[in-house]
């Protein structure tokens, strides 16, 4: 199931008022000994989320959650949109960080800016990384203060709607394709097979010697 069927998603917001959240904070390295893309939701933000340390053998259901950490607020259970500050997902290129977000249930992360590799990894794994203006992110934090905030996200329109408040973002066509069709870069490229075939035909017509070279190989 794609993260954004029909290009839209509605969900509850977790307001994480922290900047420069690196991938080790999102997904601690001690859990990264597998390339499976699932099962990491319980260790998302592990060192902030629990009062006791965990390891690969931990039963996370029996660990002590930190009641002061926003992800543990009972009214935010089932939230699917994470709101954060500048430079979210900085640090290493650890793709497990996005896997953990997706496995927990997040379908979108909203912030003023992202670590470059983290942002590239997001649509590949069914998470929308939406960059809004810093002032718009602050406005969303203000709306989330003291209440549970719900958002509507429209990828095609490039809009985040919170009640009567609307905010704009930009996504590439390839990012929208990945988020609405649940594929990867290869699938996104193959979706352009007609354009690729037309280019090859045109290119060989302009440089016929390439065709002879390919046949010789």
TrEMBL record:
| GO molecular function term, any single one | 3-isopropylmalate dehydratase activity
Task: Enumerate the Gene Ontology biological process terms.
Answer: L-leucine biosynthetic process
* Superkingdom, taxonomy of origin: Bacteria
**Name of the molecule in the record:** 3-isopropylmalate dehydratase small subunit
User: Catalytic activity annotated for this protein?
Assistant: (2R,3S)-3-isopropylmalate = (2S)-2-isopropylmalate
What is the native source organism of this protein? Variovorax terrae
InterPro entries under this entry? 3-IsopropMal_deHydase_ssu (IPR004431), Aconitase/3IPM_dehydase_swvl (IPR015928), AconitaseA/IPMdHydase_ssu_swvl (IPR000573), IPMI_Swivel (IPR033940), LeuD (IPR050075)
**Matches recorded under HAMAP family:** LeuD_type1
């Amino acid at each position: 199931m794609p993260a954004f069927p029909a290009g839209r998603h509605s969900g509850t917001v977790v307001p994480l008022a922290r900047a420069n959240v690196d991938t080790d904070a999102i997904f601690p390295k001690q859990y990264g000994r597998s390339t499976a893309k699932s099962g990491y939701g319980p260790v998302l933000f592990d060192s902030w989320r629990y009062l006791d340390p965990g390891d690969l053998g931990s039963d996370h259901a029996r660990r002590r959650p930190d009641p002061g950490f926003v992800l543990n607020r009972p009214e935010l259970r089932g939230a699917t949109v994470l709101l954060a500050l500048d430079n979210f997902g900085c640090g290493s290129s650890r793709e497990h960080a996005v896997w953990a977000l997706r496995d927990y249930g997040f379908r979108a992360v909203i912030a003023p800016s992202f670590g470059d590799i983290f942002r590239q990894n997001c649509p590949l794994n069914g998470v929308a990384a939406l960059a809004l203006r810093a002032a718009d992110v602050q406005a969303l934090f203000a709306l989330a203060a003291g209440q549970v905030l719900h958002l509507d996200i429209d990828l095609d329109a490039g809009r985040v709607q919170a009640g009567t408040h609307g905010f704009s973002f930009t996504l590439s066509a390839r990012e929208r394709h990945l988020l609405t069709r649940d594929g990867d870069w290869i699938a996104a490229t193959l979706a352009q097979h007609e354009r690729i075939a037309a280019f090859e035909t045109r290119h060989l017509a302009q440089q016929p010697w390439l065709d002879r070279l390919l046949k010789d190989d």
